[in-house]
Amino acid sequence: MNMHPSEMNPTPDRDAAKAALDVLRDWARTASPEEVADLDPAIARLLPDAEMSNYPALSRTYPEGFEVTDAYRASLPDLQNGPASLIRGTKQQLQHVGISNFRLPIRFHARDNGDLTLETSVTGTVSLEAGKKGINMSRIMRSFYKHAEKTFSFEVMEAALADYITDLDSLDARLQMRISYPMKVQSLRSGLEGYQYYDIALELVEQAGVKRKFMHLDFVYSSTCPCSLELSEHARATRGQLATPHSQRSVARISVELIEGDCLWFEDIIELARRAVPTETQVMVKREDEQAFAELNAANAIFVEDAARLFCEQLLADPRIGDFRVVASHQESLHSHDAVSVLTEGETFAAQSLDPRLFQTLVHGG
């Protein structure tokens, strides 16, 4: 007689499984916790209302002397590098995945004052292919930290970027470093000096083996409304009525692509912004400085449209700058809303859609 394997080992039905479960429970009720743990700790879960103290008997003392061996490390689970079958959602490429705002002190070159060590916020991302589950985020930090003691430049950023592209086996990557850069600024007439702080970001992007460098600056200035100025002067001239034009703290975010060649220093892009709009907010003032600032504002009254075009004029004239974008926000003292403008040059920053909160980020905290 021929015997088929399926007949010799039939698949158990629910009744057979329940009978086996009853046998396990009967045995577990009289077995010691050690016997249960030795067979399978999960059996403890089969006992109705059973205490879990024997599932399993875990130590609650931190193992100070435990040392990780290579074999133990190799046994650790690594879901991020798991097979594509673990991917949740659509198997789609991610343009950016990584970490944002890990901070550390970094040395930067200054144009005039040697090197400065500044707290730096770093964002590092890589692309993720459609068939890969994820990345080990900490590798970006570990790769970056290999270079953290160096005085930073775009060349050092390129080395750090190359390291984490290799470490994470990725095609494209991005590295951004944000700092608050101090510069001494002299008052308009009294001769006082004080530190002005500029929010600056350096960005390095590599796509398909092509590297591109960017710099971003938030420039804070005062804007006096030309219309309000004329209306105030009209009240004085026609009715002898004292009136003051409205002016407000304003912010322009200038983003530029850097062309290979001469270095564009932090100080250079700050001075470029000052030439475009000289009414930068002041640090140290006496009465003569405050009066001078009022006169300077009157001599440089601007709408938000004017501001964008004035910055554009200076950016176009600098051969170290390629494509750029200017986003300006005049935070009105007349209205309960802001006046804003965006100007782009070239394809790099052109976009049909803007971040819904873009203009809300143009705020200078006092």
Automatic annotation (TrEMBL):
Marked site, May be catalytically important, at 225
* Reaction it catalyzes: GTP + H2O = 7,8-dihydroneopterin 3'-triphosphate + formate + H(+)
| Entry's EC annotation | 3.5.4.16
Instruction: Give one Pfam family, short name only.
Output: GCHY-1
Q: Which family does it belong to?
A: Belongs to the GTP cyclohydrolase IV family.
**Function, please?**
Converts GTP to 7,8-dihydroneopterin triphosphate.
Output this protein's name: GTP cyclohydrolase FolE2
State the species of origin.
Roseovarius tolerans
Lineage, please? Answer: Bacteria, Pseudomonadati, Pseudomonadota, Alphaproteobacteria, Rhodobacterales
